[in-house]
Design brief:
The complex is a heterodimer of chains A (284) and B (325). Chain A is built from 14 helices and no strands. Chain A has 284 residues and is mainly α. Chain A is elongated and about 60 Å long. With 325 residues, chain B is of the alpha/beta class. Classes of the chains: A mainly alpha (284), B alpha/beta (325). Chain A: Its main location: membrane.
């Protein structure tokens, strides 16, 4: 047998189509997995639903949005923030999933196969995106049930509402790449879950998600205005025509849709590069 | 011409630890090399370098005729790897796991499906094919892992401690599978801490310690290096030990070792079974009652001891893992 005979598996014709195909195989694997652990999805839903209910009824009457202290206005203000926070929490599950694969030796197996180098992580992030989309649908229904309405502060249309959900999914997808990097960097799934969540609290709270930033001290407000997370929240409020769109002069607050797109794209490029590099040299 | 697995001067360091300190290997096509050594000796690191998972700091390696450092992708198409852990997705069924691996080896979905059926049959997993693998026993999971490594019938296989943690029955089963595989022409590099396993499966053994290959040869050659055979006697009465010792001295080629508490005497000899018969006759003549007597050949444990100066100690799992990181 010569060296040439040894290569029995035909090399893929096109690296891009191979990459897409491999990513889909891995995404399918992760989706099957998720469907067999339904409790993960359920628990993933309980937290945002709890946030919707608690924030609406506990904070609802005491929050000032612009010049209004009405509970109805706060409810309509709040939802964009909760949606955005929820999609970023996918970071933890994607990180934990990848850390688990490392831990169990699956990453080694994948790395010894003639498959596209980014496919394991891309497949995982695709599967997480599907889960995020499902979560968003359920959450939107709950939000409607507690009285959230789009167009409450002006007019909007279905296209704008869908665009807002598109931005949310893009943000969630970008954050799963941060999770992928965390998952590749820590040793245990437990560490990935906690390190995937802890930093999300300051990121989502020092923002316009739950309060009107005009009541913050100036330096904190500055941070909040430039927080990538705030851009998506602001964009959603604008597209939903919900109250509380921040009148700040900061560029991301003035052009929130563009800012949201640019931030998410930037996060994907940076963290995908770092995570895939880490994957290539991973040692379990 | 170099063998199906060939390595020269592989070095890999992790911080201060020199996990591989110039490893040379040459495995002729169709044979089995047993890489034998304690945890932390560098076995896993060697496998990881040869399977493209890890880039060595220096040295070169050729697997299935392909340069590992220059064409890692081509190497990955020609090898199968079964690592230390059964790397299967526990929430997927056996069938789904094998199909996924097949597709990632770039098989078409239909071909991957057919191959999965074949392998499940061959590895005696057909009945469990549609159960999630977390319901499998350790032995079944190991078999599935091995099946996954064989999806494309790779010409070169690597197995890192394939039977660690298996009960004797499953170990036997796995040994049978490995033998069948090798008789089909596959070249195999197998790491193990079990001296018996290397003895049983490998055509050639490379003993590794502290990142070096400290000896290579067939099992018999290695044993011959440690010295020949010896006679072991267990006497029935403790007071017979001095007399027995005197008898053995007459036949032996060296000093007699006495393990008092076990009433066991050992002496190196040459002369085989014929000599053993004479020893028995002589002991009988002197009226010494014996519980056990035998001609023992050195075990690989003895080999390891004489080569390294220490027994093949098994460090605890965590330390072993640290050392290969």
């Amino acid at each position: 047998m010569s060296a040439l005979d040894a290569v029995r598996v035909a090399p893929a014709t096109n690296p891009v189509s191979q990459s897409v195909r491999d990513s889909m195989v891995v995404a399918k694997r992760n989706l099957i997995r998720m469907s067999r652990i339904p409790e993960m999805i359920i628990y993933g839903l309980i937290q945002p639903i709890m946030f919707v209910v608690l924030f609406t009824y506990v904070f609802g009457g005491s929050m000032q949005i612009g010049s209004s202290t009405s509970a109805v206005d706060y409810k309509n203000f709040l939802m964009a923030g909760i949606f955005a926070q929820t999609v970023t929490f996918a970071t933890a599950s994607s990180g934990a999933g990848i850390a688990d694969d490392m831990h169990k030796g699956l990453i080694d197996r994948f790395r010894s196969l003639p498959m596209a180098r980014g496919a394991v992580l891309t497949g995982r992030t695709f599967a997480d995106l599907v889960q995020t989309a499902l979560t968003l649908v359920v959450l939107a229904v709950v939000a409607l049930l507690v009285g959230w309405r789009v167009g409450s502060d002006g007019s909007t249309d279905a296209g704008r509402v869908l665009a807002a959900f598109g931005l949310l999914l893009l943000l969630g997808y970008a954050f799963t790449w941060i999770g992928a990097l965390i998952g590749m960097s820590v040793r245990t799934p437990e560490a990935a879950t906690s390190s995937g969540l802890i930093w999300l609290f300051p990121v989502t709270f020092i923002s316009n998600a739950f309060v009107d930033t005009s009541h913050m001290t100036p330096w904190l407000r500055h941070v909040a205005d430039w927080n990538p997370f705030s851009a998506t929240v602001q964009a959603c409020r604008e597209l939903f025509a919900n109250p509380g769109v921040s009148p700040s002069d900061a560029w991301p607050m003035q052009h929130p849709v563009w800012a949201s797109l640019i931030y998410s794209a930037l996060i994907i490029v940076v963290f995908r590069t770092l995570a895939v590099r880490k994957y290539r040299s991973a040692t379990a | 011409m170099p063998g199906a697995i060939y390595a020269e001067g592989l070095v890999k360091t992790f911080g201060d630890v020199r996990a591989l300190d110039g490893v040379d290997l040459d495995v002729p096509e169709g044979t089995v090399l047993g890489l034998l050594g304690p945890n932390g000796a560098g076995k896993t690191t060697a496998v990881r370098c040869l399977t493209t998972l890890l880039r060595p700091d220096s040295g070169s390696a050729v697997v299935a005729g392909i340069d590992v450092l220059k064409h890692p992708d081509a190497v990955r198409r020609s090898i199968g790897l079964s690592g230390q852990f059964a790397a299967v997705d526990e929430y997927l069924t056996g069938r789904e796991n094998l199909q996924m691996v097949g597709q990632l080896y770039q098989m078409k979905a239909k071909a991957a499906k057919a191959r999965a059926v074949e392998l499940l049959e061959q590895f005696d997993l057909a009945d469990a094919a549609d159960r999630p693998t977390k319901t499998y026993s350790g032995g079944m999971r190991r078999r599935l892992d091995l099946a996954a490594a064989l999806v494309v019938s790779p010409p070169v296989m690597f197995m890192d401690e394939p039977t660690t943690g298996l009960d004797p029955r499953n170990r036997q089963l796995l040994w049978e599978v490995i033998k069948r595989l090798v008789s089909g022409g596959t070249t195999l590099l197998l790491t193990t801490q079990y001296l018996e396993e290397a003895d049983h499966l490998a055509h050639e053994i490379a003993v590794v310690d502290h990142g070096h290959v400290i000896a290579t040869g067939t099992s018999d050659q290695l044993k011959a290096r440690t010295g020949g055979e010896r006679v072991e006697v267990v006497v029935h009465e403790r007071e017979d030990i001095p007399t027995a010792s005197e008898v053995l001295r007459g036949f032996g080629k060296g000093g007699t070792t006495v393990e008092d508490h076990m009433r066991k005497l050992t002496v190196p000899v040459t002369g085989g079974a014929k000599l053993l018969a004479e020893v028995i006759r002589e002991l009988d003549t002197r009226g010494i009652e014996i519980d056990d007597i035998g001609l023992r050949r050195p075990t690989l444990d003895d080999v390891f001891l004489s080569l390294t100066g220490h027994v093949a100690e098994v460090k605890d799992e965590e330390n072993g893992k640290e050392a290969v990181k």
